[in-house]
Amino acid sequence: MLSAIVLPCGAAAAEERDGSDERGLGADGQPIVVTGHALADPEKIATLPVVVLSGDELVHRRGGTIGETLDGLPGIHMDNFGAGASRPVIRGQTIPRIAILNNGADVFDASSASPDHAVVTDPLLLDAIEIQRGPAAIAYGGNAVNGAVNLIDGKIPTQLPAGGLTGSSELRFGRADDEIGGATRVTAGVGQFAVHAEGSFSDRDDYDVPDGYGSDRLRDSFANAHSYAFGASWITGKGYVGLAYTRQEAEYGLPGHSHVNAVCHTHGLDLHCAAHGGYGDPFGSPDDHTAYIDLQSERVDLRAGYTELLPGIEHVRLRGSYTDYAHDEIDGPSLFTLYTNEVWDGRLEFTHKPILGFTGTLGVQYTDGTFTGININDMHKPFTQNGYGFDGSPDYHTENVGLFLSERRRFGPIDLEFALRKDWREISVTPPPFRITLSPQYEALFAGWYGAEWRQMLEDEYVDWFNERNPGAKHDPLSASIGATWNIANGYSLAVSLGHTERAPSVRELYARGNNLATNSYELGLASSNPILEEEGLDAEDVLETSDAINLTFRKTGGLLEFEVGVFHQDIDDYVFARLIEIEAEAGIPHNFLIYTAADASFTGIDGQMSYRFSQNSRVTVFGDYVDTNLKTENDNLPRISPGRLGARYDWGRGPLSANVEYYHTFKQDKVALYETPTEGYGMLNATIAYRFAIESGSELELYARGTNLTDELAFVHTSFVKNQSPLRGRNVVFGLRHTF
């Protein structure tokens, strides 16, 4: 059993992520279908691989979040935030520098706005997870500069189920957090139609932490979720078209959260964390409540894929979605903040037949979305008498058009591949409703100051002030990559890729202005009257993060010895990061004043794995990763950079019984930003054992147990904003029972 499978299809390679290449059993008991654009011999290695976690390995490794599920694969860490939210960190960087996709279409949630926001998906319902890099990721734009994580599910069938009906069910029980979870899926075929239904649930209490932390359980680390989806497809010999509706709800705690700094505000470049004048404590209550997020997401997906539909076109692929996402951030009895994200998205791709030996894909994507929620931290306060001002959150409306092309050709033993994408993005900001509630005597007073049109004049004054701090922004990034693979002989290959990626700043990087209590910080965005940019004579539209990268990959496939080692270097101009201005501890808990700015930076690293098969039944694998950074123009280091890691795993299997044991050491990270402290290293011992029973009519039943942190080591994750308040789970064993038919 492998932790990760290198799928031999690359950039131009990805047409139907639900296609026909067998990679193990999916949740319905059918072969995982992970294929690519039919552009070349699928058995050849592409410029950069698509790493796939699927089959039994996905079933046994998956946790409650995508970050937890992928953590430990070479080059991938997570930014732990309790049990409810953790995002993957790839080669030292996370969202918004990696894209999260669902079957090739963007996942629209609020995970890019703050690390305490979960990626909306349930790993229990996934068939596979792909990690794409290089030319494979260029098609998804600048936000995929460090890769794209593609979450593959089966809610829209792409083929008729074998025998007319397939399905699966699974139950899980976890010791460290009293986890109870389960999922069920079924797909039925009727003529040319296939229908699918699925659902899942999980209920996890605060999890156990090692004794050295000072308490038995981590307060507010609970996480509960449930989801369901219905889909249907019309399937012909040339392809399919299908629709699906998905709803997910989750409730999870925020360890390390405190509202005592909700009073913090700025006077110029000075952070002040005490009430005075118009600056009051929006809570005025003890700081001992449970803080949690209550999340709801609804999504409608349209997917289609057809071959030989148009002359000269090998394949047409359509992805469309409507997402209605919202979550409440609740502190005790109070609604603190409400985030929403409503997005329409469409993506159309045409794979052409060979032209001068080149086969490729031309595509266009259009996205229209409205995001709300940042900079509001007092939604629970009623708009009382004798008050005026904005009531609620601004609307951040984004419209984006992207055009992309990828091409590939083979020259003898050399595979050549290139891709490019051009985007046109515009963000406009609409102020919240303006409210005036004054007693008659105050109305008369304002009328004396402003005249008969005092209401309109007061509103215009506030709107002008708002627009000054929240200007619209236009960015037109261009990204391109070219790569080549030399297929040497006997399974050896050497690949190189060069990439130029431009990334436009995210909504939070542009418009943050206020307290983010989940990360204990007061943040100021690039466009929010940013004093650092103003000092340099720049505005937010002048900032476009530009990365030039080189990747080298040496691999061997087949035989007793297999390996893949990747070396990379990125030079980044105008790298956007939150620069420390001041740490204020007046309220008793340190609060960081951070201003988003841009500086030149570089990332250099290595990751990979090597395995040796002793026999048909046993194999040992050594794996590891390391990344080093350099912030070139600042007297500081980049924050939350993943430390080095080195580990080994032994896999064994015979007949229906399989097992593995894994140990890795995460090293100390002492290259830290000014507002960070070094993080000690730790060792992690994990093991899995599984037994599969054959049942009549081709069904299978599997019983498995997965143990993590078996030595019960106290471990803190340097990539987390709340590392000291959110250690990793202590010793845990998850028991699972899975039935497929």
TrEMBL record:
One of its GO terms (biological process) is siderophore transmembrane transport. InterPro entries: Beta-barrel_TonB, Beta-barrel_TonB_sf, Plug_dom, Plug_dom_sf, TonB-dep_rcpt-like. Belongs to the TonB-dependent receptor family. Residues 192-710 form the TonB-dependent receptor-like beta-barrel domain. Pfam families: Plug (PF07715), TonB_dep_Rec_b-barrel (PF00593). Its main location: membrane. It is found in: Cell outer membrane. It is a multi-pass membrane protein. It comes from Qipengyuania flava. GO terms for cellular component: cell outer membrane. One of its GO terms (molecular function) is siderophore uptake transmembrane transporter activity. This is Outer membrane protein. Keywords: Cell outer membrane, Membrane, TonB box, Transmembrane, Transmembrane beta strand, Transport. Residues 48-148 form the TonB-dependent receptor plug domain.
